[in-house]
Amino acid sequence: MDTKLESLDPKFQPLARTLLKALADADIPTRVINTRRTDAEQLQCLKNKVSWKKRSPHQDGLAIDVCPVALLARKGWDPGNFLWAKVGEIGESVGLVWGGRWKVKDLDHFEMPKPGVGVKIAPTPPGSLSPP
């Protein structure tokens, strides 16, 4: 699976970079686990039960999976560890959707918010889309 930030959609790259910088600034060394996935890789993730969606934002380059380096060697990346709450809080603070909030937790997953969901978008001033 791909781990390069350059493989992400250009709209998502700045958010992913901001997430990684914010984690580094918080002294949480982090490893990128996955960025973009092929359709075949997504099918394999479904078979391995590490994904629950037939279509993932990873396939469109709109998601990133990360893990604190301190948890990589722990069983299942130690889902009860306090670091996950910090990682999730940081990801949400930069505007990402965190999989740790979902019914089926996906603690390492962050994705681009859907327009109008979970983000505040400044209204377009009246007439600004009209031709001059």
Brief summary:
The protein is of the alpha+beta class and 132 residues long. The chain has helices spanning 13-25, 39-47, 82-93, and strands at residues 30-34, 63-68, 97-98, 109-111.
What do you see in this structure?
This protein is of the alpha+beta class. Strands 1-2-4-3 form a four-stranded antiparallel beta sheet, covered by helices on one side. The longest helix has 13 residues.
Radius of gyration: 16 Å
Mean pLDDT: 89
Classify the beta-strand content into a percent band.
Answer: 5-15%
User: Which sequence of strands runs across the widest sheet?
Assistant: 1-2-4-3
Q: In terms of structural class, how would the helical and strand content be classed?
A: alpha+beta
Task: Summarize the helices and strands and which ones pair or pack.
Blueprint: H1 13-25, E1 30-34, H2 39-47, E2 63-68, H3 82-93, E3 97-98, E4 109-111
Keywords summarizing the entry:
132 residues, alpha+beta, Muramoyl-pentapeptide Carboxypeptidase, domain 2, 4-stranded antiparallel β-sheet, 3 helices, 12% strand, disordered C terminus
